[in-house]
Amino acid sequence: MKYQSKLYLSFLAIAITSVTLGLSIIYFEGKKLLFNEISEKVLSVAASAGAVVDGDLLKEIKTANDMDSSAYREIQEKITLVRESNQREDTHIRFIYIIRPVVGEPGYFKTVVDSKVGAEPVSKTGNIHTSDTLMELQNHLDEYFRPKELIYDEDGTWLIAYSPIVDSSGEYSATLGAVVSAKVVFGEYSALFYYGMISFVVTILIALLAAHILSKKMSQSLGTLCKAVKQIGKGDLEQEVHLPVKDEFMSLGFAINRMCKGLREMERLKMSFSRYVSRHVLEKILKSDKPLHLEGERKKITVLFSDIRQFTLLAESLPPEEVVSLLNEYFEFMLDPIFENNGTLDKFIGDGIMVEFGSPLEDEDQEKHAVKAAIDMQNSLKKLLSKWEEEGKPKISIGIGIHTGEAVVGNIGTMRRMEFTAIGDTVNIAARIEQETKRLKDPILVSESTWKKVKDDYDYEEYGEVELEGRISKIKIYAISQKV
Questions:
Q1: Are 179 and 297 found together in one domain?
Q2: Would you call the peptide bond into 147 cis, given omega within 30 degrees of 0 as the criterion?
Q3: What's the whole-number average pLDDT of the chain?
Q4: What is the pLDDT of residues 297-348, one digit of tens each?
Q5: Which end of the chain has fewer CB within 10 Å, C or N?
Q6: Residue burial 100-110, b: 16+ Cβ < 10 Å; e: rest
Q7: Which residue range(s) make up the domain with 147?
Q8: Rounded Cα–Cα distance for residues 249 and 448 (Å)
Q9: Number of structural domains in the chain
Q10: 444-458 in b/e burial notation, b at 16+ Cβ within 10 A?
């Protein structure tokens, strides 16, 4: 199931539950209040009727024979008048009657006086009655009493209230009962339920519309974010998330945009750094858990310098554009051997190349990698010269000098211009050894510190101690030819 459908159904379920609960509370509380209101009306009728009855006169009525007495007629006329005068559209009084408990028979009452309904009273004096309501009334003879439940019979549903009647001395004489039709109550209940159902339907329709709009907006925002993240996962870092909302999704969109910008910068940095180191070294740097120090540190490295022989004369004989084209193609052929042997390109110096091994990552076999790179560079040059020969381009040769020692490696420069390079005597010695290749006519020369690590792997020729230009102390150098 789609997230939008889940969200829509969740909103709808919450709305239905909330509305149902709210309307149920309103309905039942309203029903309770309505019942209490009607019951109060019945009790008011009973109280007002009981107040007009003479309790002393009522004691004269004891049997059915007293129904023709003046006392009976007087009391009957009074309660009948109360019944008729209290008839309303919302209050239909069915009966008003007076009853008295049967002595020695709890819960049993006999009729004393009954109001007229038509020409005759419903119940005659002396008739015995009992019911659950009358059983309950037995405990409330001296107070106003209103049963909490409705009374049901074959003629309908009724509300009853009782009022005590006392004589002039304040003693209990009888109980007056008022019976009112509950039709109005059910009518009010029905109206309350009807309006409740209308409110329920209208609220649910509004909830349906609101749930649809909200779920659609949220799912659209979420869909836009998911689409952008998927594209980023595929490598498309040019994604820009723009949401027409001002909420947490917009904040998340801004965060994704900032992340994309950071990833683009990282990718540019990665691409830039990949021009200096091999892809293998770059991946190791990116995966390394240890921090990479680029601010400048002293460490052992192996430095390689290469240079094209007689390049100045070559440059004088060719147009500048062709010289640049030849150099670019030459450098392209030289970079693969360097990177394949874990070398880091420091810089191009005119037609020369400066390379470090063992930086920025530590390399226990840096000397071997440097010499292997030098040999591979010479072999790569042969391929290039074969290609140039077919194209009618000039022949060139290169000299390579290698030295191993300590140097300060890292970012050197200012905030306005900075480069990753190596500084120290080790670099100067490597550069001077490269210059000796011109004099000794050997393409690859290494210092003693480098030679000690590779002497068992390559054929070599020892030149002994050589005085390098610009240095007082001499240094032993060796010519490397090929693998043993």
A1: no
A2: no
A3: 82
A4: 889 999 999 999 888 777 888 888 899 999 999 999 999 999 999 999 989 9
A5: N
A6: bbeeeeebbbb
A7: 3-188
A8: 65
A9: 2
A10: bbbbebbbebbbeeb
